[in-house]
Design a protein that fits this description.
The chain is of the alpha/beta class. The protein has three domains: 54 residues, Winged helix-like DNA-binding domain superfamily/Winged helix DNA-binding domain (Arc Repressor Mutant, subunit A); 93 residues, Periplasmic binding protein-like II (D-Maltodextrin-Binding Protein, domain 2, 3-Layer(aba) Sandwich), CATH 3.40.190.10; 101 residues, 3-Layer(aba) Sandwich (D-Maltodextrin-Binding Protein, domain 2), CATH 3.40.190.10. The protein is 41% helix and 20% strand. It has twelve helices and eleven strands. It starts with a helix and ends with a helix.
Length: 286
């Protein structure tokens, strides 16, 4: 049996980023927080907090915090036993957050703690026990989880008219794609490379700007910094108004999305799951 006051101290340090802030939240002294976490580390034989600076959880520490979150979530219907709001750690891809999923998150039965990661990699957070649910492109459920298909997000290869005139004056060719600057969300973002391979049949080492924010990514395309795969729903008006050009209208890229969630907390997560499904039906392709 875990020492739950010690787990609560650990969770607050992780969430608030300092021992002092955790102590204020729990109405104890910073030394009491330190003692509780030290006893938990002695019991588990693991370092749970990297004291930094900055203060950060280790993977084992985050797993224990998520365990506490799950306990609180399961008890959330019994207010007399669990007055604290549960913290829901979710993994969500940035493009979903920027386009369709945010209104659904209002149905979260607790406090949100979002991890932003590529849909192709979000599953690792769920597999590692670091989140209780994730939006992912993988349909096969993680052990102990359920998987629901949400639909598909359609991406368009887009660039500004000026960028097209400068880099693709005679059309989008393999030679020009190898030279024209592309936009990349982060090192995990493979959408541009996947689209180029679908178009040309070749894998190219693309010159890339790295811009890890969805709206700034779209702005970079509008400003002619590079070409990139933007969610159709985010740039639909830009395409209609001519601010952006679709490099290959007949070749969109469709990425399937799934909602995977811990089965043990499935009932407590039901309001959020229903809201996610409803929002996905309205925004995504079947």
């Amino acid at each position: 049996m875990f020492d739950y006051p010690a787990l609560a101290a650990l969770a607050e340090v992780i969430r608030r980023g300092s021992f002092d802030a955790a102590a204020a939240a729990l109405r104890v002294t910073p030394s009491a927080i330190s003692q509780r976490i030290r006893s938990l580390e002695d019991r588990t034989g693991s370092v749970l907090i990297d004291r930094g600076p900055p203060v950060r959880p280790t993977a084992q520490g985050l797993r224990l915090a998520v365990h506490l979150d799950q306990v609180r979530l399961l008890e959330s219907g019994l207010a007399e036993l669990s007055p604290d709001k549960p913290v829901l750690r979710l993994a969500v891809n940035a493009d979903s957050l920027a386009t369709w999923v945010m209104p659904a998150l209002a149905a979260t039965p607790g406090l949100l703690d979002l991890t932003i990661d590529d849909q192709d990699h979000a599953l690792a957070w769920l597999r590692g026990g670091l989140v209780v649910a994730a939006i992912t492109s993988h349909s096969r459920p993680v052990p102990g989880c359920d998987s629901l298909r949400l639909g598909a997000m359609r991406y368009r290869a887009t660039a500004s008219p000026d960028f097209v005139a400068r880099h693709f004056p005679r059309g989008v060719t393999t030679a020009q794609l190898a030279l024209a600057p592309a936009l990349c969300f982060n090192s995990k973002d493979a959408l541009q490379s996947r689209w180029v391979q679908a178009l040309t049949g070749k894998r190219l080492a693309l010159p890339m700007h790295r811009i890890p924010v969805s709206h700034a990514f779209a702005d970079a395309a509008r400003l002619g910094l590079g070409w990139g795969m933007n969610p159709e729903m985010l740039v639909r008006e830009d395409l209609a108004q001519g601010r952006l050009v679709d490099l290959a209208p007949a070749l969109p890229l469709e990425v399937p999305l799934y909602w995977q969630f811990s089965r043990i907390t499935g009932l407590a997560l039901a309001p959020l799951t229903d809201a996610i499904k409803k929002a996905a039906r309205a925004a995504l392709l079947p």
